[in-house]
Design a protein that fits this description.
Number of helices: 7
Largest sheet: 8 strands, mixed
Strand order of the largest sheet: 1-2-4-3-5-6-7-8
Number of strands: 8
Order of helices and strands: EEEHEHHEHEEHEHH
Number of domains: 1
CATH class: Alpha Beta
CATH architecture: 3-Layer(aba) Sandwich
Distance between the termini: 24 Å
CATH topology: Rossmann fold
Length: 247
């Protein structure tokens, strides 16, 4: 088992360091690295198309993962860094992810690495992995965008057949960008490499109706617990460790 890197703070919620990552000669992006005490893995988290790494959803996920002993490295894609609205071309998005994963490896002293993110960020991570392995132990999708809203299809999932590492899909039953009747067969075709965790009542942003009795903060904690349990399973750790750390 890899030795744990030195944490940035004794308080997991405050253990955040600002980084700058060089993608190529023209592009540099900002990152936020969190290494809580006793970290046993690091998840590289890419943001969605419309909101950057500071969005409350991604920040909340990172903070909740820190409570479970999972380090994170959030980052901006170049278009978000430069204040543009249109997402980067796939080749630049892929290059950014590769550069950030490499930076995470340097910063975390040999911790097992995982990668993924919200919607667009998760899809770009999967595409990068399909083209050439990133050197991570698995991929995490926080709302995989299987198709545009109102235009059901599964063409965006074709590259997943070329992903050789385990994958975790967290999807809401009200997600307008992922018809579960289309996503389930995709998961089945991936055989044992993919796990689908369905979040009852959640939309693409993981909001749920008030009758479910779960606000956004509670949802983020729930998602982080699911991600942690899956990571621990991939690492061969006993279930329940994350709950003990978070209590």
């Amino acid at each position: 088992m890899a030795s744990s890197p030195k944490s940035r703070s004794d308080d997991p919620a405050r253990a955040v360091e600002n980084l700058t990552v060089a993608v190529d000669e023209q592009h540099r992006v900002s990152g936020l690295l969190s290494i809580p005490p006793g970290s046993r893995a690091c998840l590289v988290l890419a943001h969605g198309a419309g909101a950057g790494m500071h969005h409350p959803f991604l920040a909340g996920i990172a903070a909740a993962l820190a409570q479970h002993g999972i380090a994170t490295l959030r980052f901006q894609f170049p278009y978000m860094e430069e204040g543009r609205r249109r997402p980067d071309p796939p080749a630049l998005a892929h290059a950014t992810i590769r550069a950030v994963v490499a930076e995470a490896e340097r910063q975390t002293a040999g911790l097992p690495l995982f990668a993924g993110g919200k919607s667009f960020g998760g899809r770009m991570t999967a595409e990068a992995e399909a083209l050439e392995p990133l050197g991570v132990s698995g991929l995490v999708f926080l709302g995989f965008p299987l198709h545009p809203a109102g235009r059901p299809g599964d063409a965006r999932a074709r590259h997943l057949a070329d992903v050789g590492v385990p994958m975790l899909f967290l999807q809401g039953t009200r997600d307008q960008l992922a018809d579960l009747d289309l996503l389930r067969p995709v998961i089945k075709r991936l055989r044992g490499r993919a796990r689908l965790d369905i979040i009852e009542g959640a939309d693409h942003s993981f909001h749920v109706p008030s009758r479910h009795g779960m606000d956004d903060a509670a949802m983020r904690r729930s998602l982080a617990a699911r991600v942690t349990a899956w990571i621990d399973h991939r690492l061969g750790l006993r279930s329940g460790r994350s709950q003990r750390m978070a209590s």
